[in-house]
Amino acid sequence: MHPLTSYLRRLIRHKRSNLCVSADITNADEMLALARAVGPSIVVFKTHADILSGWDPDPVHGTGAKLAAIARKYLFLVFEDRKFADIGFTVQLQYAGGVHRIVDWAHIVNAHVISGPDVVRALQEAADSWGGEEINEDVGDAQESGSDTWKLPSKRGLLLLAQMTSAGNFLNEEYTSNCVAIARQYREFVMGFIALKPLNSQPEDDFIVMTPGCSLPPEESLDDSEFVPGSEDALGQQYVTPKELILRGCDIVIVGRGICNATDPSAKAEQYRGVAWQAYEERPKLESGDDI
Ligand code: 5BU
């Protein structure tokens, strides 16, 4: 099993949380404030670095380093939802270079395999060339819970986009199964998938599944920041309840606007955590190792 997968599975049980908050907000300092606010309730924090104004690129004191420090303090993994999709040469530059230097601070990234399997090999090479040490000094969120128990694996992980939540997307069954086949070739780097359901089908498969398009039914919600499950937003995003997703066997539910736009994001994250965790405890234990 990928070391970050076993780390994440331990975190899920420790924090009683299957929640990933997606920071779909457009200012870097507000993104960091959101990470602190929801930190206790989540196991993964998902970012879109390219939507943020005010990104500080300093590798030691900047936004990425601060986010990594907050992640160490509250015990969660950072997932940059970069959706790499180019040729191998280019994705290596996009992963390790530019303003964001994603590999320095994001434990997990994701990729489309539309360009073929070499995108995975290229990202793996870039991850392997990365030093393996997070260079974030004490920026006020220093590690408190940093016993050896929660020492972060020094490896980076990749999720493949096997299915999407947007209406009319082209990721059909054949594409999804090709994606799984590619993941099997690169087990030491690929942790799992963005998908709508678990995709493990062979005994040695231990891929995790993270699923966006997650929304509470309005009558259960603490406020009116959700979209209605079973319906779409104005741009084709489709929603399912956290309970349904967890009962299907998804490992992590990803929530963006339902939490970011809430009156009280930390209370809302805690509400989502509770609902998803209750479903997780109710569901029969799967063979994928989620109860090990
Ligand atoms: P929402 O506000 O909860 O709908 O936000 C969902 C987030 O998950 C958003 O950042 C999307 O970019 C991301 N997402 C998605 O919604 N659907 C997908 O298939 C993939 C990512 Br891949």
From TrEMBL:
GO BP of this protein: 'de novo' pyrimidine nucleobase biosynthetic process; 'de novo' UMP biosynthetic process
Entry keyword Lyase: yes
GO cellular component entries: cytosol
InterPro entries named in the record: Aldolase_TIM (IPR013785), OMPdecase (IPR014732), OMPdecase_AS (IPR018089), OMPdeCOase_dom (IPR001754), RibuloseP-bd_barrel (IPR011060)
Enzyme kind, highest EC tier: lyase
EC nos: 4.1.1.23
Molecular function GO terms recorded: orotidine-5'-phosphate decarboxylase activity
Active site location: 81 (for ompdecase activity), 83 (for ompdecase activity), 86 (for ompdecase activity)
Keywords: Decarboxylase, Lyase, Pyrimidine biosynthesis
Pathway(s) this gene product operates in, as recorded in its UniProt entry: Pyrimidine metabolism; UMP biosynthesis via de novo pathway; UMP from orotate: step 2/2
Catalytic reactions of this protein: orotidine 5'-phosphate + H(+) = UMP + CO2
Residues binding substrate: 24, 46, 165, 237, 256-257
Record's keyword annotation contains Lyase: yes
Superkingdom per UniProt: Eukaryota
Domain Orotidine 5'-phosphate decarboxylase: 18-272
SUPFAM superfamilies (UniProt xref): Ribulose-phoshate binding barrel (SSF51366)
CDD domains for the chain: OMP_decarboxylase_like (cd04725)
Segments forming a coiled coil: none
Family recorded in the similarity comment: Belongs to the OMP decarboxylase family.
Entry protein name: Orotidine 5'-phosphate decarboxylase
